[in-house]
Each structure stands twice: as structure tokens, then as C-alpha cells.
Amino acid sequence: MSETLTITTPDGDFSAYVARPEADKAPAILVIQEIFGVNKVMRDICDGLAAQGYVAVCPDLFWRIEPGIDITDQSEAEWKRAFELFNAFDVDTGVNDIAATIAAIRAMPGVEGKVGAVGYCLGGLLAFLTATRTDADAAVSYYGVGIEKHVGEAEKLNHPLLMHIAEKDQFVPPEAQQVILQALKDHPQIEIHTYPGRDHAFAREGGAHYDTGDAAKANALSLAFFKKALG
Is the pTM above the cut of 0.85? Predict the structure, then answer.
């Protein structure tokens, strides 16, 4: 069952896609978009999490640029638009919008207990920053781009964080991965899994670099992580 949630901020309102489980009350997971907006890939992730027993919420984080972005990774024109949106996006403001979404989720009817977050690509960076800057109870980052610039924020981490890193990620070069691993591998709240031979977005179903086996492995690890962290 899906619905729309409206989040109110001092700068205006924006919307989020919501998928609900069969249970009347459940913990929640905030799903943080890639650079393609709240598209079918993100909605399907929400629906899958709802089937696992979570209230899943995916906010429209590009609303300040253009509300309602819903594009794919299947054409050159869409990729061009996606990178335009990525370059226009303000990460710090985006994290503030995520914090506002978490507050709205906690107040939703049917949400009981903890609120986690999972993000992909741009959302992978935002999931890391959600873990360090908000009151989210747990977070999962898939192939986050730009995390190496923010590793110092891990000292603020009070809740568990799971990270999936593609070793052949074209957007996270080896030197960036080395910075991330060296800074975070011994952090008591952080669990990191790396995927040899995998490129960026290996878990994006239908994408050019999708890998069935490693996507299934990463997703199983994420579900086990959330079950432990959120109940």
C-alpha cells in the first residue's frame, strides 16, 4: 500500500513516497534517492522494504531545484539531466531536509519504534551524513560518492552504520576508497563490506553494472543489519 507524505520546512513543503507493510505498526526506513529522483527504482526499493515489514519513505530531495524528478539511467539525455541535478544539489541543505523527513516519519501514524535510513549513489553519501548529523537510529550507505571528504564526521557517530563499497567504482577512485577504509575500518559503529570487481550501482536493478549475486549479498546484509538495529 502506497501513499504520499508531505514534509513541511521553513523554506516550503515537499513530498515523499510511502510504502506501508501489512502490520498496523512497524519501524521505518527512509530511502535516500540516487541522482534520478524518486523514480521506479526507488519506489520498488520502498515496496520491497514494506514487504519486509517496514514503513518505507523516499523523500523528493531535488524539490528545491525541480519537484517531482522521475527519470531513469537508460538514455544519454536522462544522464545529462541527472548530472545537472547532482551539480545543482546542495548536500548540507539536503541533509537538513532528511532530518525534517525523519521527524515527519516519527510522527506518522503506524510508525512505532526506530527509524533507519538507506541511500544509494548520491544517497550513499547522504546516508553517511544522515548517520553523523541526524538522530537516525541506523544507516546503510551503498557506493556513496564523496564520502572521503567527510570521514572526519565519523567521530560524531552514535548509531550503527553499514557501508557497501564497489572496488571498481568509477566515481569513487582507489585513492578515495583508501581514505575511507583507513579512516573508518576500525570505528566501533561502522561495518564495511567491499565488492571486488563491482562498479558503481551494482545493486541498481536494470542498471548497466547490476550484478545479481553481489546485489543479493548486499541487500541480505542490509536487511539483517536493519533487523538487528531497528527490530
Answer: yes
Is 2-230 in CATH node 3.40.50.12780?
Answer: no
Domain assignments of the chain as residue spans, ordered by start: 2-230
169 is catalytic: yes
Among 86, 148, 134, 123, smallest CA distance to 204 is for 123
- Residue 231, pLDDT score: 83
- pLDDT number for residue 87: 95
Interatomic CA distance for residues 145 and 63, integer angstroms: 21
For residue 169, give the nearest of 197, 210, 147 by alpha carbon: 197
Selected catalytic residue, list 73, 97, 169, 199: 169
Of 200, 209, 211, 214, which residue is the catalytic one? 200
Percent of the chain beyond pLDDT 90?
98
